[in-house]
Amino acid sequence: MATTRAVLSGWRDGRRTRPALPGGTTSRFVLLIAAVAAGGLYVFLQAYFLVPRNADYFFDTFSRCFRDPRIGLPDQSSQGFEESQRLLASCQQPAFVDQARWIAIGFLLLGGVSIACYLAHPWWVTRSRCERFPALPSLRPRRLSRFPSREDPDEREIAEYLDHLCRTVGVQPAPRWLLDPLAGTSNGLAFGLPRRRRVIIDAGLVKRFRDDRDVFRAVIVHELAHLRNRDVDKTYLTFGMGWAFQAVAVLPFGALTLHSALSGGPSVIPAAALPYLADVPRALGLMAVLTLVVHLVRNSVLRARELHADATAAAHSGHEAAAAAAFSRALREPPATGRRPARAALARLTLRLGYWPTTETRHRVLGEPALLTRPTMGELLGAGVVAGVFTASADDLVGTLYRLLWGKLNTLSGDLAVGCTIGAGLTGVLAAAVWRTVATSDPAPRPTRATWLAPPAALVGGYLAGASLPLLTDRTELPATSLEFQGFAWLPRAGPVLLAGAVCLTVWVVSAARGMVHRARGRRALYAVVATSVVSFAPWFAVWYSVRRAGPGNGFQPALGDAPDLGSSIGWYTVLSRWTGFTWEPLTVQGRLPSALVGLMLLWLVPLALLLFPGRRHATGPDVRPQLGRALLAGLAGGTFVIAAGTALPFLARAALPPAVLHYSGAPRDTGFPTVYWHTYVALACVAQGAVALVICATVRGHRPALVLAGISLTALAAALGRALAFGVVGCTGLFGGPARRCSVPFVPEILAEDLRTITLRGLLAALPAALSGAGAGALARRRTPTPRTADRPRPPARIHRWALAAALVVLATAVVCATAVALPRDQYVWSLWFRG
């Protein structure tokens, strides 16, 4: 219990320390903001067309634009089509500006009402409680008096005791204490604006000062913990956002929807546009779901702040007193005795999901404060649902913004922008949740088996459910999306790919956390891991987001390469051409993003750098230098193999294929031998990366994801450099034909950068299953031949110097950054096409 007190109170050995076990209130508060924003965005977009004035103006503008002969009948030339699109965008711009203004006003009202409720909460708290109707007497001020008074001898001792508690908990300046003489309960209430904090003490609690000092101390410390944890602002902002969401979004949307249904809808809307409008019952049902999500997230914020205050009170008052305080507060729960089983189960569920924690939960947290840090599956599920709803609403918003900024709707660039935003939030939430799970598994950071799959499954399941909710509200199809062609069939097509990516992120975070949670100084390792996760995995989610809506087909289905016309009678040559020339759309899109190589580099550079230089005070645990040296040697060996095999390929090709096939360069729709040779070289590099990943995972036990990525990155770099040597041999042997042989090594930086990106991305397809196989083989081998324990025998010092390994990592990272910078001009044309639409 001494450790718990030091951790939660922030005092250890007379010095102030940073709390190591946060209560999760801030993360849930951010989730509440996201839920209100997602729900508000959906409501404001749908409610815009329920106002007759807005619908008339919007569709009249569109009708007038399409009646323009310059737009309806554009010239057949590309220049005429561009001019028609420009005129159409200019004509439609006032309608989208009006829609954007409507959404902006809605969010301003939402934020203004939330802040107004927060600023008015001191006035509301000091009013009398509404115990009977009419409600007007509840607005009368409560009889609150300043307490305690130092002039009164009976209250002087209480005043000094309260000052002592403030200094002990660390609340300075002390709040203003108020007494409620009509309240007979033993409770307190902390409230107030910044620099004007107040705590109301019930009259029944004052009697406990003489009768039961432990309970008095526990309740007061509980309220002071709210002030110390900065819960007051988050609590009343939480209430304010909940009330504002219902007042600004839910009630007006429900009223407009019912009015539109009873009046038959705006008559000016064209008949062709009616299928795009939401069906009234389904729209109200989705609105009820969004309201429930906001309500549940709000309750989770309030429960988290109560549990955190209980744990802080336990750290200062002792477990028994804090438990007594928790029990006294839990007396408000209505007993479930005498009810039917169904009603009793419903009552228990309501209490569990309410804004007040149950007695069992309070006792569990008091006994094990680490439960505060461990994320719940409900938290991750709620984050996924909120992100999915926001994604479905953001499609229309981004479409509007692109029409305003660039004059036309661009699906791919808009999807990448939305995907990066949503992906950053999802990856950050998942990385922080997994880190918190590993950090609480003391004394050894070994998470349970459920940690590898449960958090990503909950997050991905919630996201897929939230993204599918709008499909239930439309009669036929969704505007500005292509998911209407797929219906719900996109879930089994795109869902497993997203889950696989989330599991990869979880494995990497678990590995990084297990190695750094007790070695890094402060929270820098946590911030580094979360930031690296966002930078590295958010673009992959953006690519998944843009590919998932690839029409009625499956954008995640790999496509084999073309079979060559010349040489198609050679069976093995045709098979080699088709299998080595396969394409996969996610890799094609990812290869055009500058973050492809940089993100993969950060995944191995950040954890290995923190492990190599942990700091003198935190240099605990096994040394990573032997494992890193082994991984780099394996990567170098794999690169050497690729260079040797690529150099030998020209001689093998001359012996296996006729000159006519070797000298055929190909056509626009026909594969020639130079393309097949290059694809074969890339396939050899991928096989080498898979072999390197298998060897590393089979021979090392810790930090496998970072070591594997570092090893295959070195293999990819060596293979990209060896490509110049291999093509030098091709030119010297005259393999591709030509008037003269050239025995020089063609070294072009732009081609090197493109080759490095292609080999690295394609190598991941072989490295991932090979790494799993290597880990399984290594575990099976260690189980059959267990190594004797050498705990008593000192370990030999690492022969590889730390700075030598750091220099190797710096050289490898520099090569990756330079390749990314060199490849930027080649991608400029593709990006311009994406933005032009």
Approximate helicity band: 55-70%
Instruction: Label the structural class.
Output: mainly alpha
Number of strands: 6
Radius of gyration, whole Å? 32 Å
Low-confidence stretches: 1-20, 130-136, 267-278, 329-337, 474-482, 790-797
pLDDT averaged residue by residue: 78
First and last CA, distance = 63 Å
Note the beta-strand portion: under 5%
Can you count the helices? 29
> Quick one: biggest sheet?
4 strands, mixed
Strand order of the largest sheet: 3-4-6-5
Shape: globular
Keywords: Cell membrane, Hydrolase, Membrane, Metal-binding, Metalloprotease, Protease, Transmembrane, Transmembrane helix, Zinc
Domain Peptidase M48: 155-325
InterPro entries: HtpX_protease, Peptidase_M48
Pfam family, one: Peptidase_M48
Structure keywords:
837 residues, Zincin-like, two-stranded antiparallel sheet, disordered N terminus, hydrolase, Peptidase_M48, membrane
Report on the architecture of this protein.
The protein has 837 residues and is mainly alpha-helical. Among the domains are: 138-229, Zincin-like, CATH 3.30.2010.10; 373-557, no CATH class; 569-598 and 614-783 and 799-836, no CATH class. It has helices at residues 2-9, 25-48, 52-66, 69-72, 78-119, 121-125, 153-169, 203-211, 213-228, 231-263, 280-317, 319-330, 341-352, 359-367, 377-406, 411-439, 454-468, 483-486, 490-516, 524-547, 571-580, 585-590, 595-612, 625-656, 659-662, 673-699, 704-733, 749-784, 802-836, and strands at residues 11-12, 15-16, 145-146, 176-180, 188-193, 196-202. The strands form 2 sheets. Strands 3-4-6-5 form a 4-stranded mixed β-sheet. The longest helix has 42 residues, at 78-119. It starts with a helix and ends with a helix.
